[in-house]
Amino acid sequence: MLRGWILFHHELDPAIPEVPEILRFQEAASAMGIDLTVYDPHRFDLIVGGDEDWAVTYNDSPMGRPDFIICRTGAETDYYTLALLRHFERRGVRLVNGPATIERVADKLHTLQSLNRAGLPIPRTILGTFPMDVDLVERELGFPVIVKTLKGTRGAGVLKCENRSQFEDLAGLLESAEAKADFILQHYVRASHGRDVRVLVVGGRVVAAMERRSLTGGFKSNVSLGGVGVAYNPPPEMAELAVKAADILDLDITGIDILFDEEGYRICEANSAPGFQGLERASGLDVPSTILEWIVVTQDAPASAPAAAESSVLADMIFGGRTGLRAITDRNTHFREFASAMGVRLFGASMSCLGQALAPALLVDARSRTVNRRRTGTPYRRAIGTPFSGCRAVVPVVHRRDPRPALRAPQALAVPAVGGSCGPTGSTAGWGVRGEGFSFGF
């Protein structure tokens, strides 16, 4: 039986907003045969050194090693909880999410810096300082302006100053009170007034989304503050943005909040322990079961992944950059069989792949104009096809002993997404990057 822990820093009192979600996790785990126990991180004692190099006790009782830990402390994660997570991380326990990720995402400015560095769109932001330079704020952000504490959740610690006068009043109040809270100032995105989208990403895949709308006409749309959530089918660009944000921030599970902008979308915030009660009501998705199923499926993934020499095709396909699929076929599986095995769900894309695989002129990556590199004089040292629209890398490998494509089913040749050399699969070992397969997209 898989054994997991949930770290949560309150008693399981249903009056606490997060507790019903914790109980939902336990309910889903029980139905799946998973032993899932809730622990308060502050009741652990960590012992480093001596005979028990990584000992852990809970209420003075020795603790074993779980298979995984889900941290649900979110923005309220303190140093002790992070230290506990690092302790288990060093013991090889799987963490969902990890301490470095949780610490980064708990700091809204740090989150925005990471996203901005990766080129993802965010609202223009200034770190608040005392005394405040009102002219700078007006010049760089304009009014209205959004004021946020660096750490906060469920819409707390966020307000809007409509004009310069209101902002000056707030600045004067904070300075006179010698307020110590760190905060940021953000450009107000008018197109998203009173609405945004919460996108739930699990394991690098969008599993649900809802549009949150204010019912009072205010600028906050949080369901916890009285807003309403409705099911939402995110456009491909929005879904891709959410997945990229989760990847940049190294979040296994996250709720990405996205604002509507005149020119597209902007990432507002990311959450390491996203609330999901409103999302479940809006979408009908069983969020805890979805998360736990992903954990179960991927729990032993590193140990069970096949060696490069034992697979003929490792495909990491991204259709339009929107939907991810990973598939591994056994040695010597023909490309056409692999393509047709995609099934009804990806029927259209599969038919395109199948058609290209069955066609006499096979495909070659536009960057790699050769097929057989053994001798420069070989008649097969040429392009034998051109990629279809948007294709990044589909390259057949002509068998070394029999270079005639018509006599052997083609195998896939790896073409790195960025730089590097071509690499083989199956019996054509010896070229490039470990023969890990191919990558292409539509």
TrEMBL record:
Gene3D superfamilies: 3.40.50.20, ATP-grasp fold, A domain, ATP-grasp fold, B domain. GO terms for cellular component: cytoplasm. Its cofactor is Mg(2+); Mn(2+). The keyword Ligase applies. Residues 112-296 form the ATP-grasp domain. Keywords: ATP-binding, Ligase, Magnesium, Manganese, Metal-binding, Nucleotide-binding, Protein biosynthesis. PROSITE patterns: ATP_GRASP. GO terms for molecular function: ATP binding; coenzyme F420-2 alpha-glutamyl ligase activity; metal ion binding. GO terms for biological process: translation. Transmembrane segments: none annotated. The keyword Manganese applies. This is ATP-grasp domain-containing protein. It comes from Sphingomonas sanxanigenens DSM 19645 = NX02. The lineage of its organism: Bacteria, Pseudomonadati, Pseudomonadota, Alphaproteobacteria, Sphingomonadales.
